[in-house]
Inverse folding.
DNA sequence: ACCTGAACACCGTTCAAGT
DNA sequence: ACCTGAACACCGTTCAAGT
């Protein structure tokens, strides 16, 4: 277990492993040190403090995300990137809350944003269109993964035992609409929350494409004339 | 400061106040106790442990969200609810990560889901359509707020000082597309990230409405025939 | 019933000291 | 240069004891 060379990179790798296997709550400087075969204080020779460790872990995660190629096909570029974001964040469920709370973006984070903006620019998006598209896509992807990583069940089978066993089932029965939803969706054969990802992503990509077709090039993106809006 | 009656409710209220004012990291059992004029161990007479306190705080937040009325107008129902979710989560920036990590839903949480499903059912959504609409809407709303609560700047002015002052500006200048984006969007007069919320929400509502018009009633929601899909 | 003080097993981090 | 041990100021929580 104790590698002869302890480096910043090997400490970060060990931290990612530990967080993946035992959760972010188990990632303490003392436990991490034991895990790499060293005393707790030795870690501070490679990293100034725990915040810096978390920053480095987050940038490792960004580095694993597939970048869109700036070849002009913004739809497939954004789709590939978004699916890769989701896949990577599911592999490291501790990462999303951390990514959003970091203030010092690392090199992989910056490269990721650079490539995504480049992909949209290459397809002719103006500044306001890039801002709109990026905001909506990231909201959807991050929000979806946030729900996915925190659902108490992955499949219909796990949900079934949760609903039938225990006191939760009795409580649920007092809510008619939740009961209807549980029976007809969650307990229906083949249910999984994840199957909503692709249709949802296409919905968002369709909406971006439509607004782009209507909009003034480079101008502010806005809903089409038919949409009900209540702007003040 | 020390109220004569210490109750579970007053403890939870004080905890929400403390988290609002000083952040969730400052919410320790010892500090909370001092804040309500009592010793730390007294809190355990009203709540079994800190997890239960966090559960109760999250349900307080759910209780503050405006419920959609089941009057058949699903669009305005979802819009009202979604804007209320955002407003409440911005008032309590600590709440979103906590909401998604709780496993024991409180009464306000259940009432919230019950009313939202009821709103969609009343408008004639089938089970799969409810599942699709709810997943996409929540992904967008939670994801948007997640970004909003963690942005290092709220307005263009704050962003400007961040970009011009300090070492971050020099680093940024080495990324041409991020520089372009910063100059033309973030530093443009009147910029704020929040203005993307309403258009994004309408994009999602439009997409839900379109797929509903095409779909088999009660069947699985899917992208329209024209959309590029890569289903396996 | 409600509150307390001492204690236990943890944290991140500083600092002086070892090799 | 790299690692260590003791120590400090914290955590959440148990437990026996006070009123």
């Amino acid at each position: 277990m104790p590698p002869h060379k302890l480096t910043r990179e090997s400490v970060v790798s060990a931290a990612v492993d530990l967080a993946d296997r035992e959760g972010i709550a188990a990632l303490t400087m003392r436990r991490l040190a034991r895990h790499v075969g060293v005393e707790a204080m030795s870690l501070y020779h490679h990293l100034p403090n725990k915040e810096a460790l978390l920053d480095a872990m987050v940038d490792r995660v960004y580095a694993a995300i597939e970048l869109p190629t700036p070849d002009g096909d913004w739809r497939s570029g954004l789709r590939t990137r978004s699916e890769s974001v989701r896949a990577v964040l599911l592999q490291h469920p501790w990462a999303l809350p951390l990514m959003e709370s970091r203030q010092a973006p690392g090199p992989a984070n910056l490269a990721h944003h650079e490539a995504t903006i480049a992909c949209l620019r290459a397809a002719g998006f103006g500044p306001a269109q890039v801002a709109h598209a990026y905001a909506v896509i990231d909201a959807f992807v991050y929000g979806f993964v946030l729900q996915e990583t925190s659902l108490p069940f992955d499949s219909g089978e796990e949900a079934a035992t949760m609903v039938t066993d225990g006191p939760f089932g009795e409580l649920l029965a007092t809510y008619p609409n939740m009961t209807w939803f549980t029976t007809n969706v969650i307990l229906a054969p083949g249910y999984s929350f994840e199957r909503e990802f692709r249709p949802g992503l296409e919905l968002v990509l369709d909406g971006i494409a439509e607004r782009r077709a209507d909009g003034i090039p480079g101008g502010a993106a806005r809903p089409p004339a038919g949409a009900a809006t209540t702007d003040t």
About this structure: Chain B touches chain A through 66 residues (CB under 8 Å). The mean pLDDT of chain B is 90. Residues 86 and 133 of chain B are 17 Å apart (CA to CA).
